Amino acid sequence: MIQFNVIMKSAALQTRVHVNVLLPEVFDTHRFGELMPLYPFDTKFKTLYLLHGAYDDSTCWIRRTNIEKIADEKGFAVVMPEVGNSFYCDMVHGPNWYTFMTEELPQAMRRNFPLSDRKEDNFMAGLSMGGYGTMMISLNHPERFQAVASMSGALNMARQITDLEQRIPVNDIWGSIENYKGSQYDIIHMLEKAKNEGVDLPRMFQVVGTEDFLYDQNMDFKHTCEKLGIPVHYEELPGGHDWAIWRKYLPIIVDWMFDEK
User: Fold this and answer.
1) What confidence score (pLDDT) does residue 54 get?
2) Other C-beta atoms within 10 Å of 241: how many?
3) From the CA atom positions of the chain, what is the Rg in Å?
4) pTM for this prediction
5) Residue 75 in contact with residue 44, Cβ under 8 Å?
6) At what angle do helices 187-197 and 129-140 cross, to 10 degrees?
7) Is the confidence at residue 85, as pLDDT, over 70?
8) How many angstroms separate the Cα of 49 from the Cα of each of 80, 111, 240, 243?
9) For 78, what's the count of Cα atoms within 13 Å in the CB-facing half-sphere?
10) Mean per-residue pLDDT for 73-99?
11) Cα separation, 13 vs 165, whole angstroms
């Protein structure tokens, strides 16, 4: 894989932002002295957007998982943006991260890298805050993604917004729980909206540890999907909110995304 550390200027954010990108090698590097293309030169690669959690950054996937090996074996690109503790939202008191994620980022990546813009070639996954971002963005733009996955995601922030005020900038992001409920950032509301409007949603994967402090939020998401008849592939396992689960499930999720017919 070729790794790019992108520093791009964002109009939505009015600053520069870091994005890590992995792209399949153009040539077979095992054939010394020969330039043997691995893909046709007009190839547009399938793309997995990987979203980090709170108090982390865009390098976490490379530092803590084998995503480079996984992507190399299957031949897809990986885009890993960095968003601080924004929950991938246009903040009430702060930058417009949702606009960046949904408008600027995909356009910039496709203008500068050979990435496919077809729904069937685009995927998104994230952990914790990134699991929230994945489900929130894909529910607002279901036409863009073939499959999405949440690992230990914060999938019903209405349940814990007041409990988490000391850990995340709740008031800066949503302003209040009243602003959050029923908005485009309210995942449970967006599930109900999608069902009522007959929206064709991406395939969804959800995994969480049974001792995770976000377990109840995950149950809210799962039970809402069941009530509405929305398919979601759900798995749980013993464990908390940690990388032991996320490292284990990243290759499982990729196999589910790219191999299932």
Assistant:
1) 94
2) 18
3) 18
4) 0.94
5) no
6) 20
7) yes
8) 6, 16, 24, 18
9) 32
10) 96
11) 23
